[in-house]
Amino acid sequence: MRTSWSTEDGRALRSALILASFEKPAVRQLAGELEPWLAERLERVTLRSDLREFCTERERNQDAGVERPDLVCVLGGDGSLLSAVRSFAEDPVPTLGINLGRVGFLASTPASHWQETLEGVLEGRGTLELRTRLTVRIEGQQCSERVALNDIALERGSRQGMLTASLFVGEEWVSDYRADGVIVATPSGSTAYSLSAGGPVLEPSVPALVVTPICSQGLSNRPIVLSDRDELKLSIVSASGLTNLAVDGQAFHSMEQGDCAYIARHPVPYPLFAMPGLDPYRRLRDRLGWRGSIEATERAEGS
Fold it and tell me: Is 63 a catalytic residue?
């Protein structure tokens, strides 16, 4: 869901946190421009030059690292933004991703347009996309509940054979998948791992989830789109060895035959800022390289 950001409703920004990885020269250069620009306009601006270290601190202790800001600016690609989102999982902060990576579905503001986007945000003209998240818990293990913005993926080990996993929606059995794994993705994650495995693209506001088998032995197994109101269960029926549960491709938990993972929509979506006036379908065309006919492309570029 998209919603406008207005400074008139008491959400005026007074502080910002900039998260970056300074081993990349382009990131260092942009941070050198962004930090003083924000410092002239806000009461407090904090720059952390080692995003990985910051996220590790926050994962160990959600109160560590920095006082809660009103805005987080992430300099990097979608992987950097996913790390930042995970570090504020328990208390979401409106986040702007400025893309210096390869694709940039989540970090949707190009580096060349950062000032334009931030001016809109600070002037109350920002656009927030409220992104669906997932929670997952593993039955029978001493594992706290995990939260994902993109996807939950059940995967075989790199040297093991295929696994067999059962999918349930609520109490209803859907199918058994004999495959390299199974992905459960949000609309945000539909353009990530799930898309690479042959899943469909969902518009970010669609109240749905995608279940996509990874290299299924059964050729009739196809991705399925389900309501995000239901709880899903993935049960490992058989596995020849190590099985992992990956959360946004960044947190991994071992699972064994007989284990179950329960997946549901998180009650609180995560707020991501989009560039003002951004056409979400142009974002798809640009990121995925869609061309269509030459005439249609020329019309779109001329509009």
Answer: no
